[in-house]
Amino acid sequence: MEFNIRKAQPEDGAFLADMITMAGRNHISRAILEYLLGGKPNDCMTFLQMLLITQTPHLFHHSCYMIAENSDGPVAVMSGYDPATMGYQAFHAAIPEVSPILGWSVAEENLVKERTDKLVPCMPQIVDGAWVVDRGATKLEGRRQGAASSLLAEIMAEGKKLGFGLAQASVFIGNEPGVKLYEKAGFSTVDEKADEFFEKMIGAPGMVSLTREL
To answer: Number of helices (H) and strands (E), helices first, in the chain?
Structure first.
C-alpha cells in the first residue's frame, strides 16, 4: 500500500501522544515516560501533549516525528533525532516549560531528572555520532501494510541528509516484531543489555540495540 509520509505538526499532538504511548507500552508494564513522571497514565498523556509542543526541541518533541497516512488519515509514527542535541538533557531543559501548567514544584521537576539519571544507564549506550530511530507505532487497523517500513526508510533518509553515517535503534527485549522490522531494513544487533532495575521499573528485562550504516 502507498502511504503519504510527512513531518508531524503541532496540531498532530493528540494523535502523536496516543501513538507514543502505544509505542512506549508495547508488551511491558508501563512506558518509560510513565516511569519518569511517576504518575498515572492520564497524567502522563496530559504532560506528553504539552511536551510535544515546547519551545525547546527534545526527543519527545513533535519535530522529531514523521507520520504515515493513507486515505483514512494518519496510521503510524516514527521518530528520528540527534541525541547530542535532542536527547535526555534537552528533555530536562524542556520540563520547566510544562511543569508550571501542571502546578509542579521545583522538587517535582528534579524528581523526574533523578529518575531519568537512574534509568538511562540501564539502557544500551548510544553510539557516538549515531542518528537515533525511535518510538515507532502503527494503529492496529494499519498494520502489515508497510507503513512502518515506509516511515523507517524516510527517517533514515533524513538522517543521511543531515550528515549522519550511522543509524541506531533500540527495542525492548522480547519485542520480536520490532527486531524483525529493523533487521529487514539492514540493521544488526550490536548490544543486548539486561538490567534488574530496568525490569523492575519498566517490566522488560532490558533493551536490544541495533545499528546500520546510512
So the answer is: 9, 7
Q: Which domain holds residue 103?
A: 4-213
CA-CA distances (angstroms) from residue 100 to 111, 115, 120? Answer: 15, 19, 25
Residue 18 belongs to domain with CATH number: 3.40.630.30
Query: What is the count of structural domains for the chain?
Result: 1
Q: What is the DSSP string of 107-145?
A: HHHHHHHHHHHHHGGGSPPPPTTPEEEEEEEE-GGGTTS
How many angstroms separate the CA atoms of 159 and 149, rounded? 15
CA–CA gap between residue 57 and residue 39 (Å, rounded):
23
pLDDT tens digit string along 129-143?
999 999 888 988 778
What percent of the chain clears pLDDT 90, i.e. is strictly above it? 67
What sign does the dihedral 183-186-24-114 (CA atoms) show? positive
Give 58-80 pLDDT, tens digit per residue.
999 999 999 999 988 999 999 99
**Site of grid cell 527486531:** 179
